């Protein structure tokens, strides 16, 4: 398997994980009103921890794009791929 193919597989897995995370957060958004105070506190703390991890993902993705396009602007994303 080529490095490009491996990269595409990794990107596909990341995209799938992010899609699942978005769906879960959208579902949680509709259910949040029914949480008790204790549950709401626990969920909020858990989300803050996960948000910090998302910051790490964003930083890593930014660094990889920088490695791919070190001296120029990265290309605009293809809207059909979003």
Descriptive terms for the model:
82 residues; mainly alpha
What's a quick, concise take on this entry?
By secondary structure, the chain is mainly alpha-helical. The protein is built from two helices and no strands. The two termini are 25 Å apart.
Question: How does this structure look, described?
Answer:
The chain has 82 residues and is mainly alpha-helical. It is built from 2 helices and no strands. The protein has helices at residues 3-31, 37-68. Helices cover 74% and strands 0% of the residues.
- Principal-axes shape call: elongated
Give the radius of gyration.
17 Å
Order of helices and strands: HH
| Helical amount | over 70%
Measured between the Cα atoms of the first and last residue, the distance is 25 Å
Strand content: under 5%
Count of beta strands: 0
Count of discrete alpha- or pi-helical segments spanning 4 or more residues: 2
Secondary structural class? mainly alpha
List segments where confidence is low: pLDDT < 50 over at least 5 consecutive residues.
none
Kindly state the mean pLDDT as a whole number?
Answer: 86
Helix and strand layout, with pairings?
Layout: H1 3-31, H2 37-68
């Amino acid at each position: 398997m080529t490095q490009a193919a491996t990269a595409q597989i990794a990107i596909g897995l990341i995209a799938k994980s992010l899609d699942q995370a978005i769906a879960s957060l959208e579902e949680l958004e509709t259910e949040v009103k029914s949480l008790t105070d204790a549950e709401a506190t626990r969920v909020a703390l858990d989300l803050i921890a996960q948000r910090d991890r998302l910051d790490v993902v964003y930083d890593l993705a930014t660094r990889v794009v920088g490695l791919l396009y070190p001296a120029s602007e990265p290309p605009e994303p293809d809207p059909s791929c979003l």
